[in-house]
């Protein structure tokens, strides 16, 4: 991604359900990758991203279809990790 700014506070509805959470992040450029595991009724996605000129990242959210948590460091070269659980 090029030029990303994200701010989510509160409640959001999408075609897939609802989400309550907090997310803050800004960066000039980023690349993200992850792995998904299907455990029958549950799914797990873990991954990370590398960012250039970033404020860092913090995200926590809970919805009717899952949970997400992400944390990353600020700086000229930032790294963040995330985990997403789905049901």
Short description:
The protein has 87 residues and is mainly β. Helix content is 0%, strand content 89%.
Helix and strand arrangement:
Layout: E1 2-14, E2 17-39, E3 42-63, E4 66-72, E5 75-86
Antiparallel strand pairs: 1-2, 2-3, 3-4, 3-5, 4-5
Features:
87 residues, 5 strands, mainly beta
Description:
The chain has 87 residues and is mostly beta strands. It is 0% helix and 89% strand. Strands 1, 2, 3, 4 and 5 form a five-stranded antiparallel β-sheet that branches. The termini are far apart. The model has no long low-confidence stretch (mean pLDDT 93).
Q: Outline, from the CA principal axes?
A: globular
Question: Overall mean pLDDT score?
Answer: 93
Report the span from N to C terminus: 28 Å
Number of helices in the DSSP assignment = 0
Give the beta-strand count: 5
What's the alpha carbon Rg, rounded to whole Å? Answer: 13 Å
Portion of residues within helices: under 10%
Characterize the main sheet: 5 strands, antiparallel
Low-confidence runs: none
Assign the structural class, choosing from mainly alpha, mainly beta, alpha/beta, alpha+beta, or little secondary structure.
Answer: mainly beta
Give helix and strand order, one letter per element, not per position. Answer: EEEEE
Q: Name the beta content range.
A: over 45%
